[in-house]
Amino acid sequence: MLHLDGCEPSALADSPDPDSYELIPGRLDAGLIVLCDHATNIIPEGYGSLGLPAAELRRHIAYDIGAAAVTKQLAARLGVPAVLTRFSRLLIDPNRGLDDPTLVMRISDGAVIAGNRHLDEGEREKRVRQYYEPYHRRIDQLVESCVAAGVPPVLLSVHSFTDNWKGVARPWHAAILWDRDYRFAVPLLNALRTDSGIVVGENEPYDGKLAGDSMWRHGTRRGLAHAIIEIRQDLITRPEGQQAWAERIAQAIESIFAEAERTEELHQVRYFGSHTDTDEAPPYTSPAERNAR
Fold first, then answer.
1. Which of 38, 217, 219, 291 is the least crowded, having the fewest Cβ atoms under 10 Å away?
2. Does an H or E element contain 117, and which?
3. Which of 248, 221, 202 is nearest to 139 (CA)?
């Protein structure tokens, strides 16, 4: 997979540009889709700034700084499709389940989001209908198109995290988040860790075991291999850092997909379930879990 030779226009994803999402075209049979749930800090027309000063919208509370640029460069480098949001996570967070209390944040890292404080059910449903659901439907449609092209896709979701939290520095340059499906996450973790110059965490500073998030919805429930990569924001604020990390991730993915036996496993539909819905031992224990015992 990940080959562009003989690419036909019919094998490319289309690229409509609605309010909810941006679609980057790519080979449907390349075996990979890249997602960016928190790509932008745009507040749609009619919502003003949700009552926040402009400076707050430039912070991590509004979007994952640098993640969109890495996503687009990674997709271009590999020739694969990508789907990115075109609305701020402060409006509604597509990486949360519909029953998650943080779906629409009222307070985030000390900032009171006035435009969300008195959210009623009607407005919540409007945001779900106009922004949340179209983004997820487009991912579903793209997955179906890839399956129809003969290759159930691997999913990679690109996020970023702050370099410190409440005054405590975070030592990781990046991290891989995952739940029970190890097929893509562990090889990606190991591939990135071959670079001795970076520290790659596992399920830190966040946990990949979140019911209702994008990977649960499109990966776990559909039996598609998947992983989340979190990159520290100070490393991808500038274009040179974004390019360097897109290249690093691309090289890691190419090394994984170059192994025929592993690639075959990656493109099988297999249901591992989630730690959030079972107490059974996972089918594979990760390096970090093994080392902790």
1. 291
2. helix 114-117
3. 221
